[in-house]
């Protein structure tokens, strides 16, 4: 089969880790007989330097026309001036909005070989393998009015939390579809004891659950969920939450694993129902890591696992995705470690060595 992939590597370690993701993708192509047509462009700080904006309209068109977007990371101290008119991060925010990427999927798996590298006790981490889904284009971050104004009693800030039934339903459906393909258990997060939007969320989840009798639906309050994610993380399989709750919970869940360099993400514009491909953007959850950029020591696993998610959700290549994930586990089993996950960082593997070893295991 043939696919068009837009590659936007961005800044800092973005290009370093995405190069390894591309290496793995090309190996998948040669092993399984697929052709991946890759088109590259600038995004973020590098795009500001070269073109004056973090994302050009033609880059957006390229992303829109592609079967999927592979994204690195954007930003860095060079572009951090608070007075600057344009910011690298606007590049990713614009693309999410323009492509309507409403569901952010973050798998969180603790690799048995790396249990000792986590900040949590090994016993707590045993069997952690979950997916956290965050609603990405609605709620508190976008709804209007949103303003700050001076009143007679001092400053007042206003944000609006608004969700429509349709917005809630489509992201919950992503949760139900994934739960159906995994253990059949879905945890829906809300704050229904306080918030009206959460009461609507719970109502929509319950009604939608009737369409998925094979999925066991659990409602949980966000504060309880935050606590249990640390106390008993292995009890969760698929978690779905609105934008703000999801933002916090996805980062909390990331702490369970040994390093930011291990976690991939998918942002989908469609519901990935069985046998159907969904348009999406795939990126490691980490940023540009300016402290290690240019040294060839970044962990490329998050980028490589993002390629696996792209194969699964946007290209419909389920077997190929699983093979990439197995190759990552095999490399870790073999003892390969970049400095972020190594017991002895001085004798650790480089970014390219890790990428090449994973590609060679395919
Ligand atoms: P970061 O994720 O870049 O780095 C946090 C820490 O994790 C650093 O110590 C870094 O060295 C380490 N780390 C991250 N990825 C790693 C990898 N693959 N291998 C080994 N170690 C890794 O977060 P930050 O330092 O808060 O942000 C740096 C820049 O990245 C900022 O400009 C920020 O705005 C940007 N950022 C961009 C995105 C994005 O593009 N989606 C996301 C987060 C942060």
Keywords:
Isopropylmalate Dehydrogenase, two-stranded antiparallel sheet, ten-stranded mixed beta sheet, globular, alpha/beta
Characterize the structure shown.
This protein has 362 residues and is α/β, with parallel strands linked by helices. The protein has 2 domains: 1-101 and 277-362, Isopropylmalate Dehydrogenase (3-Layer(aba) Sandwich), CATH 3.40.718.10; 119-257, Isopropylmalate Dehydrogenase. 39% of the residues lie in helices and 20% in strands. It is built from 12 helices and 12 strands. It has helices at residues 14-32, 45-51, 57-65, 89-98, 122-125, 165-181, 196-209, 222-231, 243-254, 301-313, 318-333, 351-360; strands at 2-10, 35-41, 68-73, 103-109, 129-135, 147-151, 154-158, 185-190, 216-221, 238-241, 264-268, 280-284. The strands form 2 sheets. A 10-stranded mixed β-sheet has the order 2-1-3-12-11-4-5-10-8-9, with helices on both faces. Strands 6-7 form a two-stranded antiparallel ribbon. Strand 6 (147-151) and strand 7 (154-158) form a beta hairpin. Helix 1 (14-32) crosses helix 10, helix 1 packs parallel to helix 12 and helix 10 (301-313) runs antiparallel to helix 11.
| Element string (H = helix, E = strand) | EHEHHEHEHEEEHEHEHEHEEHHH
Spans where pLDDT lies below 50 across 5 or more residues: none
Instruction: Kindly report the average pLDDT value.
Output: 95
Q: Could you estimate the helical fraction of the residues in percent? A: 25-40%
Bound molecules: nicotinamide-adenine-dinucleotide
* C-alpha-based Rg, rounded: 20 Å
How would you write the strand order of the largest sheet? 2-1-3-12-11-4-5-10-8-9
Report the count of strand segments. 12
CATH superfamily label of the largest domain: Isopropylmalate Dehydrogenase
CATH topology of the largest domain: Isopropylmalate Dehydrogenase
Assembly type of the shown chains? single chain
**CATH class group of the largest domain:** Alpha Beta
Name of the CATH architecture of the largest domain: 3-Layer(aba) Sandwich
Number of helices: 12
The profile of the biggest β sheet is:
10 strands, mixed
Number of domains: 2
Q: What is the CA–CA distance across the termini?
A: 18 Å
Gross geometry: globular
**DSSP strand content:** 15-25%
Judged by helices, strands and strand pairing, the structural class is alpha/beta
